Amino acid sequence: MAEKLDRSIGWSRLPTPLAIPVLIGLRQQLRAHNLYDTGRGAGDKPPYDAELVGDLTARSLNGTHNDLDHPLMGSLGSRFGRNVPLAHTYPEEDERLLDPNPRLISRKLLVREGFQPATTLNLLAAAWIQFEVHDWFSHGTDLSHQWEIPLDDDDPWPNRSRRSKRPAGKHVMRIERTPPDPSPDSQGPPTFVTRDTHWWDSSQIYGGAPNLEFAKALRLGRRGQLRIDDLGLPPEDAEQTLDLNGTAGAFWVGLAILHSLFMREHNAICERLAAEYPHMSDQQLYDKARLVNCALMAKIHTVDWTPAVIAHPTTVVALRANWFGVLGERFRKYFGRITKDEVLQGIPGSPTNQHGVPYSLTEEFVAVYRMHPLIPDHFVFRSVADNKLIAEHELPDLTVRHVRDRLNELKMDDIFYSFGRAYPGAINLHNFPRHLQYFKRYDDSVVDLAAIDILRARERGVPRYNEFRRLLRLKPASSFEELTDNPQWAAELRRIYGDVERVDLMIGLYAEPKPPGFGFSDTAFRIFILMASRRLESDRFFTRDYRPEIYTPAGMDWIDSNTMRTVLLRHFPSLEPALRGVKNPFAPWARVDRR
């Protein structure tokens, strides 16, 4: 019934009281038909180390023992699962896989011709999703095997190299391939493994396997606290343990302020716990504070960030129901948890449920979270005291090599204020950051992230746009004009693709009309309906072990009492005038005039 109503009317056109049960029904159908296990090879696991596991009432550093019956589930080195049947996840043959040319798509469909702002959001929303993605997934790259992308003669790409295959003499762009599964199955489609854990465990802050040195270097060694230097960052000796040629090399000022904020929050939680429970050891305080901090970030993502990004009245209600249930926050405050039912009182504290499929994040989930258009190319920094212009910078000035320079130049509360006042980019065609189409990595190599985004979905066997919709039981586009309501885009798509069936998933997601209030597409939302709940309901620390006996009563109170607003104001009280009257901290903040 839910899918029938959605197909005939559309959930976003229904009144909220009717739309909510439709979304619940859609989620049930997605759980039943769009969760697929890719298995586990003999080598798809982290090296066992008791130091990485620790106390089973705390999150491990390698992701093991979240599920006590299946301790490797979701751990470092586990395979990504799928949201489409495995028979549909075979990559195309190499020549067809590179058609249309990813670099051509980058140049003709994605290049930012003029900044298209997302005026219902602020720039913190853009930084936040990258901050979270760095916790959720990482594939790594295979430096020894590369794709060769032919370049047109008029392509200005600087790192042009000769093609190693015929036809000889053609210039190419080289892109590292995704590393293969170290223990592939003898039959079936290719599989890929994670270099992070699959759990929502804040590993982007705390570190963990395989780089245990960073996790150790970050510890203060007393009262459970983390080391924070005068700039608000991890000390330089800790940073030196990171491989800046990997994911850590994507660090920039937007990530730096969020890392700093939640490192400070960890230490504030430790102070509260130490005052309440003076008998706790350094390790116990650290473990409990990490649990609390992680749950608070999950709550912020669920009830603050996501309702800002998909601000349709129905989804705002639905997302709060994911955390608090349809009975709501006030009911829980006054009556506590009286039922384990996730619909009535939310996922946190409900029974753990894998829905018959071992938990992992999925390649399709990775694919729909490609949101680089959110990032501007140009940044303006103003004072929180009087809105006075302090500095202007291009994106490269804010990247990993220059983070400490910028934090020496700018106060962190001014950076937060400037991000709160600025708009991110809209997730559309022709709005990819130019600086990310010519992104200089830490090793000085240059890459086109737009071309890489296109290629990654293809090489990992993520179906193209129309097939993706079919596999989610959505109507495919019969023409380019049906795919997008922008006539210019339809014409451009026809010139590049020729056949609507060839349109890449990411391009279709950027081109399709969005529901009212949405920052991303309705097609992507289907994966979100499924996986946003699954990340919570599969994790025992958000379900069966989300309780005072594990978190402590003070820890549970901390989660219940705090939001993104309270976290910001605890550590940067000067932001209060800018947040005054702002309902959601990820929406544009108020201008602060001279006081």
From TrEMBL:
<keyword id="KW-0560">Oxidoreductase</keyword>
<dbReference type="InterPro" id="IPR019791">
    <property type="entry name" value="Haem_peroxidase_animal"/>
</dbReference>
<keyword id="KW-0479">Metal-binding</keyword>
<dbReference type="InterPro" id="IPR034815">
    <property type="entry name" value="A_dioxygenase"/>
</dbReference>
<keyword id="KW-0223">Dioxygenase</keyword>
<protein>
    <submittedName>
        <fullName>Peroxidase</fullName>
    </submittedName>
</protein>
<keyword id="KW-0444">Lipid biosynthesis</keyword>
<dbReference type="GO" id="GO:0006633">
    <property type="term" value="P:fatty acid biosynthetic process"/>
</dbReference>
<feature type="compositionally biased region" description="Basic residues">
    <location>
        <begin position="160"/>
        <end position="172"/>
    </location>
</feature>
<keyword id="KW-0408">Iron</keyword>
<dbReference type="GO" id="GO:0016702">
    <property type="term" value="F:oxidoreductase activity, acting on single donors with incorporation of molecular oxygen, incorporation of two atoms of oxygen"/>
</dbReference>
<keyword id="KW-0349">Heme</keyword>
<dbReference type="GO" id="GO:0004601">
    <property type="term" value="F:peroxidase activity"/>
</dbReference>
<keyword id="KW-0443">Lipid metabolism</keyword>
<dbReference type="InterPro" id="IPR037120">
    <property type="entry name" value="Haem_peroxidase_sf_animal"/>
</dbReference>
<dbReference type="GO" id="GO:0020037">
    <property type="term" value="F:heme binding"/>
</dbReference>
<keyword id="KW-0925">Oxylipin biosynthesis</keyword>
<feature type="region of interest" description="Disordered">
    <location>
        <begin position="148"/>
        <end position="194"/>
    </location>
</feature>
<keyword id="KW-0276">Fatty acid metabolism</keyword>
<dbReference type="GO" id="GO:0006952">
    <property type="term" value="P:defense response"/>
</dbReference>
<dbReference type="Pfam" id="PF03098">
    <property type="entry name" value="An_peroxidase"/>
</dbReference>
<dbReference type="InterPro" id="IPR050783">
    <property type="entry name" value="Oxylipin_biosynth_metab"/>
</dbReference>
<keyword id="KW-0275">Fatty acid biosynthesis</keyword>
<dbReference type="GO" id="GO:0006979">
    <property type="term" value="P:response to oxidative stress"/>
</dbReference>
<keyword id="KW-0575">Peroxidase</keyword>
<dbReference type="GO" id="GO:0046872">
    <property type="term" value="F:metal ion binding"/>
</dbReference>
<dbReference type="GO" id="GO:0031408">
    <property type="term" value="P:oxylipin biosynthetic process"/>
</dbReference>
<dbReference type="InterPro" id="IPR010255">
    <property type="entry name" value="Haem_peroxidase_sf"/>
</dbReference>
<keyword id="KW-0611">Plant defense</keyword>
